[in-house]
Amino acid sequence: MILGAIADDLTGATDLSLILSRSGMRVVQVIGVPNSLDAIADKADAVVVALKSRTNPAEEAVAMSVAAATALQEAGAKQLFFKYCSTFDSTDEGNIGPVAEALMDHLGTDVSIACPSFPENGRTVYKGHLFVFDQLVSDSPMKDHPLTPMRDPDLVSVLGRQTKIPVRLIAHDIVRGTTEGLAAAISAAPGISIVDAISDDDLRKIGHAAADLALITGGSAVAMGLAEVYREKGWLEPSSGSDTLDLPEGKGVILAGSCSQMTRKQIEKARLTGVPMMQLDPLRIANGETKTEDIVAFVESNAATGRLPPLVYSSADPSVVAAAQQALGRQRAGEIVENLMSAVAAALVARGFNRIISAGGETSGAVVAALGASTLAIGPEIDPGVPWVMTLDADRPMLLALKSGNFGSEDFFLKAWSMLS
Ligand SMILES: Nc1ncnc2c1ncn2[C@@H]1O[C@H](COP(=O)(O)OP(=O)(O)OP(=O)(O)O)[C@@H](O)[C@H]1O
Ligand SMILES: O=C(O)[C@@H](O)C(=O)CO
Description:
Helix content is 38%, strand content 20%. By secondary structure, it is an alpha/beta fold. The strands form two sheets. It has a 15-stranded mixed sheet, sandwiched between helices. α7 crosses α8 (200-209), α12 packs across α14 and α14 (330-350) crosses α15. The two termini are 34 Å apart. The protein binds adenosine-5'-triphosphate and ligand LCNOYBR7. The ligand O=C(O)[C@@H](O)C(=O)CO is lined by residues 9, 11-12, 15, 85-87, 118, 219-220, 361, 385, 404. The site of adenosine-5'-triphosphate has 27 residues, from α13, α14 and α15. One of its GO terms (molecular function) is ATP binding. Catalyzes the ATP-dependent phosphorylation of 3-oxo-tetronate to 3-oxo-tetronate 4-phosphate. It catalyses: 3-dehydro-L-erythronate + ATP = 3-dehydro-4-O-phospho-L-erythronate + ADP + H(+); 3-dehydro-D-erythronate + ATP = 3-dehydro-4-O-phospho-D-erythronate + ADP + H(+). Pfam families: NBD_C, SBD_N.
């Protein structure tokens, strides 16, 4: 194993796995802190550990991340990567700063970088400010995220509020210069550098400049140059990460708990295409009006092999989400929905369903936790950042498309499904 990665949510882990696999690395994704990686360490160039730590209290996120780092190091990882969201989803209390700081401490290093840029999905960092397409993140729909509203676009300030480690900016004029100049700027003084990046070329150069860092932190795209670095170091064969999966036949469902703007557009597109749909309301779940068995009955009566899968969603506009959060509390509203999605997934799998398209990182984490799977193989790309993946160790293989809330084109659900037929 060369690279050991720790991702703070499941869809983020899958996103990173896809980038690494596209660059020719053999990747295995592990769900949760692994006890031992002995069984997979020599079959993978990169192991990506998917945590569900993004919105946990900082000390919990730190404990999980350091435990994952230890397992990855014991399995031989030469470099560690901490993957968080390309929209830097976090609160002032954490978790990006505390986890980065703890991992640096654990590795005995005082220098790292932070770069959430992902130009292919519209995320860029310029003068330390995070943009989502043409808007600052704080003007984008991310300002209304149900769990981690992003209201400050200045990443030096955002990260600075989360950690005692010095945070500074490496601006684009340095990134545009030589790789050596950039590497020197990164290690010029102890601390974490927010590195500007507005293109894939910038990201590849940052990968090269970070070649000797013990820890890289960022979005998935900052890993796009790493395979090349590892080949130059003689660590990686010119192998090709496989993206072919055997696709078992079976029935499917779409479960969407993301309230992001893109997921809501994808739901509308599915509605126009005639996908059978059922909407969930956290208040009705909380007062017992909506039950797992009703949802399962709806899905079963609308699913058949070869047909478009039914869609169960709780996704709603910011005002509706705010009303539910006011009544139930932000955390509880989220958990109520996640627990139900999880129960529905478990019940459907018990009834023979083996294909799940899931939208939202927290939602996907909850859904996959119910399946008892601990390792995933990475398959073909559906849209940037989202591949089909297959469970390697559940009772029978399951195909999953785990979509980050804001990722994918408007016809994502249909596109994903049509790849299987
Ligand atoms: N109607 C609703 N009201 C309140 N909370 C909701 C509602 N629907 C979903 N939620 C919660 O909102 C959260 C959405 O987070 P999730 O990570 O699944 O999506 P996302 O943030 O858009 O995706 P990503 O993290 O991949 O960007 C979940 O905790 C979910 O349970
Ligand atoms: O980086 C991203 O945007 C995604 O991989 C993600 O983490 C969303 O939850």
